[in-house]
């Protein structure tokens, strides 16, 4: 195309010169300086225009219009947005909510919320080997959070020595800035070291005293809130969260220990154990005292409720808040105001308003809600995305979107960031405790309709596995039911997946699991085994339900045709039906694969003989993308091949993380700049480059996962392009006009 265009331009230039030569022979025009000037100017403009046109045709720069939006976080831009998880929460009388967690990608492990907004970050909890924790409290002067400080090789700057971690209480003023104190530790003297063995599991204040649960030592340590000097300590086995009742006595969660169940114990300030206790609970995760002096307990067992106890004398449960059974009651998984799931925080303000946080299971994301005393939802702050991407249900034309655990309903007529509604939470760990999402960290989502039925396929950051889920609304509502799984090859000395999960997995080779009896459990007779290469480059599930696997070897394409859907609704794949296909010779390290049976078109990416890898960065797409037509007929000659941004220096400053093909376009996103390159699928010519717009603060984090981009073409011709953005906890969505 480029050569043809240049030939045509050359002919045009020749004809143009002939006309100019004829004009210049006219005697009057030869003597006119004005004409010569105008002629030169005209020629310059024409040549410049031809140059611009030539550049457009060669580089493929186009004017495809697009808009930026996002899903999964209440706030789409700025430093203050809903954090990845809330693992501990304290509610002040005025309704200010203080939170803490072990990790937030953008460094907001601890935050301050009020009136449905994030009003501040509790700072300096990230980087320099620091992290947050799972305890937080506050009084009228300070905030206190549990945190960790690791070594940095700088003991002269008061960091711990190598191999040591400080488990600390760190003090802040009410704006979230560190508040140093005499003899404080750490680089800014705001840390109180309580242990080098185990994290702090509970914090509470009463009067001028701070109570700290030292889990490893089985101690409650008491400190002065102003001087931070230790005043005394007393013994409590396995102490967890603490709250203070109106009589200034302590209620402490005693965490379960082996076969010993959890309890809530009662102690005086001096450490005397009082006779009252609560034992009719399964998994208490948080406690608080409400405005009437009652004890609130986050019951994270099957009830999924906040339990309310009258504690004036012997504790008596007098009420509960939230639907019994939580998100699994009624239509399982369907999100409703009073359906809770994975409780990590409870509290009330002085007016009796109720605050509850749900984190889901296996840290699914923040769902912080405020209710009126009568139970009406007042506001809700959501931060549901972390190392995750979305894909669209083809049957509903992109109205339904899925991430690894969430289901969103879209209304594209609404403004950016307002188009999504959190519809369902698709994981049920009570019914399916062996669900792979509870034991692994998937992050790449494929939504497929196979024989009209919906399926969810998930893989992870390292292409280690491919998980398969089915849906059965009649029995499980919105829940994704474990249906199957592919894994990589076991090594000689240990299984591919270590630990106690999944049970009965083969000791050697690789395996495919299928839930033959439909109970969601991994059982002995449900594995198919083989031995194959362990170096997986990528997975793909085509529109027929066939699974494709790219291996980083010369014979590195595996095709698993879908055999059928079994009576339980599970797709059947087997090694006996697996087809081995040879990698086209241009590739020496195959990374991604996308096949479209409707057109018999294959798209492959990887490092090539012409553009080899500069280092072994296993997570990237490679150096080239190529299209092959008539793939099933044996064609291995590319229709086109394009060089994409890749590392040529060994410093890994430039590389492409992920690719996705949708109808007329191929989309590829870079690792560090998160820029999306758009190529014409017929020609391979670049037609656009997408960057995060002002709707998301014109910023994005790095792309960390091999499927960090997914594209979908709607029936109206519009393209939806979903890009992972785990830095600030969302999925960026580009909308391109068709």
Plain-language structure description:
This protein has 738 residues and is mostly beta strands. It is 8% helix and 39% strand. The chain starts with a helix and ends with a strand.
How would you summarize this macromolecular structure in one to three sentences?
The protein is 8% helix and 39% strand.
What's the SSE blueprint?
Blueprint: H1 2-24, H2 27-31, H3 33-59, E1 66-71, E2 88-91, E3 97-100, E4 110-114, E5 117-122, E6 130-131, E7 136-138, E8 142-149, E9 166-173, E10 191-195, E11 200-206, E12 209-214, E13 219-224, E14 230-235, E15 239-244, E16 250-254, E17 263-267, E18 273-278, E19 284-289, E20 295-299, E21 305-310, E22 316-321, E23 343-348, E24 354-358, E25 366-371, E26 377-383, E27 391-392, E28 400-402, E29 406-410, E30 420-425, E31 442-450, E32 453-460, E33 465-471, H4 473-476, E34 480-487, E35 510-514, E36 527-530, E37 536-541, E38 547-551, E39 557-560, E40 579-581, E41 587-596, E42 601-608, E43 624-629, E44 640-643, E45 656-662, E46 665-670, E47 676-680, E48 686-690, E49 709-713, E50 719-725, E51 730-736
Antiparallel strand pairs: 1-51, 2-3, 3-4, 4-5, 6-8, 7-8, 8-9, 9-10, 11-12, 12-13, 13-14, 15-16, 16-17, 17-18, 19-20, 20-21, 21-22, 23-24, 24-25, 25-26, 27-28, 28-29, 29-30, 31-32, 32-33, 33-34, 34-35, 35-36, 37-38, 38-39, 39-40, 41-42, 42-43, 43-44, 45-46, 46-47, 47-48, 49-50, 50-51
